[in-house]
């Protein structure tokens, strides 16, 4: 194995090496420093004259006299079923004080694209225990459903609650969570680890943590390590895996930082023009495959800079994924947890995972009616600000009150509260009972007769 001492330039996390033999894109690299220590890297770009190497641990201590070796293989993730219950760094090294993972296999972290013809249609309901998701924007096994949040909002708490509570009701099939944190602070990392250990959720989870002071280039690798682990558990061990990323904005910032170091022509707001493709390579690794029992469901979490949903990161994510859950600052200011705003939220695969034999026959109708009533109540808040509450009709007051009760009873729940889908649907019926039955125009009469609290009370009497 040849060693090259032809480093010509060092820029940010990049090292430029001249006069090499032909090398492959993504090939692993080792760089020996003058003190004998080794730094790892990866070929980012290769041409006839120059090879660009991105260094995982940062370029501090690297000089032109350092030796560079090209190792002839791409990054591979050592995987094993024993990874369940482990906390690993963003580079895949143990953080929990446990031993190194003894691999059953070593898999390429880029993974293989799922053939669209081989994809199975998602249809199984995943119960998160959070009413605004289960009742109004249902998560389905094999779906990719992002959470759009803002700086300072409790998206991490929501992520932990989903990781603790997510399950397929009535199913005995093995279920696992792969939790991937990118660019988080040490304080956040401690919170995540303590919560997983306190609740026992760590037993069925694999946790990857890339800290804010870790190199940006490691942040690019972390979600790929997590997804490779998820694919191994899903398609080699027939497990149903929920992958949660937080925060994809930090990942995209790392892409922008590396693009700037490479002096690439920037796209929107300085992000690289290939960011859509890069995100799609991660998100499209979710799904189910014909002939395989396992599945991968993704819940990416991202903070929208300036709470701007048109920012390139949420904008491109929305094009690739099947809906979004939006965390609202105004609900957070009211002290409501989880502050999920159902109005702009959407689950495009919801109809595939609800109904008879999955949740309940009245689910779709009740959800539509609650959406409609809540939207009308919110509109009336704007009218009240202009004309005052006394100017409203009796009917309008009912809808105005419905919006308040909806937020206080259905949206609000505690961080440890794990509601079943039946409890959520019954709560939604209880809210709709505050409106005249004649206003329930999106629900079939047979469901009103069967589930409306007033009708059930008459039958019981």
Automatic annotation (TrEMBL):
GO annotations of cellular component type: plasma membrane
Stored Pfam families: ATP-synt_ab, ATP-synt_ab_N, ATP-synt_VA_C
Record flagged with keyword Glycoprotein: no
Gene Ontology process terms (BP): proton motive force-driven plasma membrane ATP synthesis
Membrane topology: Peripheral membrane protein
Record InterPro entries: ATP-synt_VA_C, ATPase_a/bsu_AS, ATPase_F1/V1/A1_a/bsu_N, ATPase_F1/V1/A1_a/bsu_nucl-bd, P-loop_NTPase, V-ATPase_su_B/beta
Record-annotated ATPase F1/V1/A1 complex alpha/beta subunit N-terminal domain positions: 7-72
Protein keywords: ATP synthesis, Cell membrane, Hydrogen ion transport, Ion transport, Membrane, Transport
Chief location category: membrane
Residues covered by the ATPase F1/V1/A1 complex alpha/beta subunit nucleotide-binding domain: 129-347
Subcellular location: Cell membrane
Domain ATP synthase A/B type C-terminal: from-to ranges: 353-452
GO molecular function annotation: ATP binding; proton-transporting ATP synthase activity, rotational mechanism
Record-stated family: Belongs to the ATPase alpha/beta chains family.
Purpose of the protein: Component of the A-type ATP synthase that produces ATP from ADP in the presence of a proton gradient across the membrane. The B chain is a regulatory subunit.
Classification via HAMAP family: ATP_synth_B_arch
Subunit-structure text: Has multiple subunits with at least A(3), B(3), C, D, E, F, H, I and proteolipid K(x).
Name used for this protein in its record: A-type ATP synthase subunit B
Organism: Methanocella paludicola (strain DSM 17711 / JCM 13418 / NBRC 101707 / SANAE)
């Amino acid at each position: 194995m040849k060693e090259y001492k032809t480093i010509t330039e060092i820029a940010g996390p990049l090292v430029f090496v001249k006069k090499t033999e032909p090398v492959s894109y993504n090939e692993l690299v080792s760089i020996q420093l003058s003190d004998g220590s080794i730094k790892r890297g990866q070929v980012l770009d290769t041409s006839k004259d120059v090879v660009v190497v991105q260094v995982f641990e940062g370029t501090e201590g690297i000089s032109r006299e350092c030796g560079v070796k090209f190792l002839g293989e791409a990054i591979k993730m050592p995987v094993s079923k024993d990874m369940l219950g482990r906390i690993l760094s963003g580079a895949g090294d143990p953080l929990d004080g446990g031993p190194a993972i003894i691999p059953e296999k070593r898999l390429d972290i880029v993974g293989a694209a799922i053939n669209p013809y081989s994809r199975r249609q998602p249809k199984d309901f995943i119960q998160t225990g959070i009413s605004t998701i289960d009742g109004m924007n249902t998560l389905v096994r094999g779906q990719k459903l992002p959470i759009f949040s803002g700086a300072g909002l409790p998206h991490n708490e929501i992520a932990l609650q989903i990781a603790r509570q997510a399950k397929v009701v009535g199913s005995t099939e093995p279920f696992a969570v792969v939790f991937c944190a990118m660019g988080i602070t040490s304080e956040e990392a401690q919170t995540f680890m303590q919560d997983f250990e306190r609740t026992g959720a760590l037993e069925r989870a694999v946790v990857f943590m890339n800290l804010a002071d870790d190199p940006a280039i490691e942040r690019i690798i972390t979600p790929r390590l997590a997804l490779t682990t998820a694919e191994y558990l899903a398609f080699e061990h027939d497990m149903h895996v929920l992958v949660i990323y937080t925060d994809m904005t930090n990942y995209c910032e790392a892409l922008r930082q590396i693009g700037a170091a490479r002096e690439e022509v920037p796209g929107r707001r300085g992000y690289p023009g290939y960011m859509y493709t890069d995100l799609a390579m991660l998100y499209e690794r979710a799904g189910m495959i014909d002939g395989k029992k396992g599945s991968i469901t993704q819940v990416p979490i991202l903070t929208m800079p300036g709470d701007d949903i048109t920012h390139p990161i949420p904008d491109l994510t929305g094009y690739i994924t099947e809906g979004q859950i939006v965390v609202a600052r105004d609900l957070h200011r009211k002290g409501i947890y989880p502050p999920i705003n159902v109005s702009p939220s959407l689950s495009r695969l919801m109809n595939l995972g609800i109904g008879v034999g999955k949740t309940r026959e009245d689910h779709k109708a009740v959800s539509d009616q609650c959406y409609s009533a809540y939207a009308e109540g919110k509109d009336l808040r704007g009218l009240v600000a202009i004309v005052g509450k006394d100017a409203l009709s009796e009917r309008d007051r009912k809808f105005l009150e419905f919006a308040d009760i909806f937020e206080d009873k259905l949206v609000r729940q505690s961080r440890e509260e794990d509601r079943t889908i039946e409890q959520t649907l019954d709560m939604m019926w209880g809210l709709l009972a505050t409106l005249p039955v004649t206003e329930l125009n999106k629900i079939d009469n047979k469901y009103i007769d069967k589930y409306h609290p007033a009708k059930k009370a008459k039958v019981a009497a």
